[in-house]
From TrEMBL:
The keyword Transmembrane applies. It holds the Pfam family DUF6198. This is Membrane protein. The keyword Membrane applies.
Length: 200
């Protein structure tokens, strides 16, 4: 193990700290991208679009969609854990809190700073809550369930994200350069952070 690697936590308090710290950071990352106005990640384009049509906050939609997505786990034979249920509830709450507290980016420099911080936060958050080993997020479970049907991880993720992105765009969600940055950067950044936080 390299000196830069942070050992995987085994005690429950440490695992819970990673889980809920990761979920808080994930919601904050969503809020940063939304407030940038430059485009959201694919799922959040969808969440925002649904929220605009239904008159709901993006955080509320994240919670509702997460709960509905968990129903799709049944035919895919996926088992939720504490992390799955916590993801459904807390990411939406933290996203709404971040959107409420963050000032809208009124300048391009601040907007791009929001995008950079948002994408980095989401990548680190993903590694934190997965490394806790307490269950995948509801949307991640759909991907792993599709992998069990014989699809590759890359194809499964592509099919899911292009579907929700297109639907969200049609509903009025924000798609832009920030969406492209998210698509290109979140994977490599997530891989980078696994060097410090080994996945369970």
């Amino acid at each position: 193990m390299s000196e830069a690697t942070i050992p995987a936590v085994s005690g429950l308090p440490g695992r819970l700290a990673r889980l809920y710290g990761g979920l808080a950071l994930y919601g904050t990352g969503i809020g940063l991208q939304v407030e940038s106005g430059l485009g959201n990640g694919p799922w959040d384009v969808f969440h925002q679009g649904v929220g605009l049509r239904a008159g709901l906050s993006i955080g509320t939609v994240i919670i509702v969609v997460g709960a509905l997505v968990m129903l799709a786990w049944i035919p895919l034979r996926q088992r939720p854990g504490l992390g799955t249920v916590s993801n459904v509830i807390f990411v939406g709450l933290f996203a709404d809190a971040a959107i409420h507290l963050l000032p809208p980016a009124g300048h391009p420099v601040l907007a791009w700073l929001y995008v950079a911080l948002g994408v980095t936060s989401i990548a680190l958050a993903t590694v934190l809550y997965i490394s806790a080993g307490l269950g995948a997020g509801p949307r991640d479970g759909i991907m792993t369930g599709l992998v069990r049907t014989g699809l590759s991880v890359r194809l499964s993720r592509f099919l899911i994200e292009i579907t929700v992105l297109a639907a969200g765009w049609l509903l009025g969600g924000t798609v832009g350069l920030g969406t492209l940055v998210f698509a290109l950067a979140v994977g490599p950044l997530t891989q980078l952070f696994t060097r410090w936080f080994p996945l369970r």
